[in-house]
């Protein structure tokens, strides 16, 4: 059971928007920055954005992030087939003294 | 350009010790704010954080695995080594090393991962 809770799956049509939630607690999301990762099986996970909306070079501004209290959200607009992947949220947990990852959300673009 | 690559055995026996090496380029672990972490993914499961070592030799471990893990760095060789003792079949996973940056507070660059199978 992950410390951070994500929906197992989300889906939307090409060109549409989708949001992925990540729920935690005061000791993790409520206190520390949240980062989001895109992972295609068999490949290296890729950092896409943090909750300050900082994106590494190469990540389009179709990706956005926000945080409110103990929950964080990843948003993707203008969905493309290439966005299909597993998405993970992660943050530092100040009580566990450990990084924690969410259980992952499988995004299907159909 | 930052790159990382994991290396080590593809299979270990139960109770053995696993030693994985992360060889990296494009940054230095002698630079303030840099770090290297290890994360794993068992087949069909989620990512699980294992350990992180900082430029100043500070380190952090997953509480559930802390007694079995050791992370060390060789700054001159741009390598980080993770050892995990008393391996069990449930430790079968793809192991990733990743570049961590304090400013980003994120794992910015990741290696391709190495699959380790624990079996007798």
Describe the structure.
The complex is a heterodimer of chains A (110) and B (120). Chain A is globular. Chain A has 110 residues and is an all-beta fold. Chain A has no helices and nine strands. In chain A, strands 1, 3, 4, 7, 8 and 9 form a six-stranded mixed sheet that branches. A three-stranded antiparallel sheet of chain A has the order 2-6-5, with no helix packed on it. The model of chain A has no long low-confidence stretch (mean pLDDT 96). In chain A, 39% of the residues are buried. Chain A starts with 8 loop residues before the first strand and ends with a strand. Chain B has strands at residues 3-7, 11-12, 18-25, 34-41, 48-54, 59-61, 69-74, 79-84, 93-101, 106-110, 114-118. Chain B is an all-beta fold and 120 residues long. Chain B has no helices and eleven strands. Chain B is 0% helix and 53% strand. The model of chain B has no long low-confidence stretch (mean pLDDT 97). Chains A and B meet through strand 3, strand 4, strand 7 and strand 8 of A and strand 5 and strand 10 of B.
Rg result of chain B: 14 Å
Our estimate of the beta-strand percent of chain A is over 45%
Largest interface: A-B, 26 and 23 residues
Count of separate DSSP helical elements of chain A? 0
Beta strands of chain A, count: 9
Uncertain runs of chain B with pLDDT below 50, 5 residues or more?
none
Output mean pLDDT of chain A: 96
Q: What order do the SSEs of chain A take from the amino end to the carboxyl end, as H and E?
A: EEEEEEEEE
Shape of chain B: globular
State the main characteristics:
heterodimer; A: mainly beta; 3-stranded antiparallel beta sheet; B: 120 residues; 7-stranded mixed beta sheet; 53% strand
Provide a short characterization of the protein structure.
By secondary structure, chain A is an all-beta fold. Chain A has strands at 9-12, 18-23, 34-39, 46-50, 63-68, 71-76, 85-93, 98-101, 105-109.
């Amino acid at each position: 059971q992950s410390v951070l809770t994500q929906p197992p799956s989300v889906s939307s049509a090409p060109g549409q928007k989708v949001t992925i939630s990540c729920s935690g607690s005061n000791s993790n999301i409520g206190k520390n920055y949240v980062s989001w990762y895109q992972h295609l099986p068999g490949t290296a996970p890729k950092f896409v954005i943090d909750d300050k909306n900082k994106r590494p070079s190469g990540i389009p501004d179709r990706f956005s992030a926000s945080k409110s209290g103990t929950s964080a959200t990843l948003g993707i607009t203008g969905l493309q087939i290439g966005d299909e992947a597993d998405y993970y949220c992660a943050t530092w947990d100040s009580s566990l003294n450990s990084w924690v990852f969410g259980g992952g959300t499988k995004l299907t673009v159909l | 350009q930052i790159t990382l690559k994991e290396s080590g055995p593809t299979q270990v026996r139960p109770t053995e010790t696993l030693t994985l090496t992360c060889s990296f380029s494009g940054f230095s672990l002698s630079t303030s704010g840099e770090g290297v972490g290890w994360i794993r993914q068992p087949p069909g499961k989620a990512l699980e954080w294992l350990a992180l070592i900082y430029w100043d030799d500070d380190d952090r471990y997953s509480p559930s695995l802390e007694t079995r893990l050791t992370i060390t760095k060789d700054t001159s060789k741009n390598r980080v080594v993770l050892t995990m003792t008393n391996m069990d079949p449930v430790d079968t996973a793809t192991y990733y090393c990743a570049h961590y940056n304090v400013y980003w507070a994120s794992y910015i660059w990741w290696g391709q991962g190495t699959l380790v199978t624990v079996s007798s």
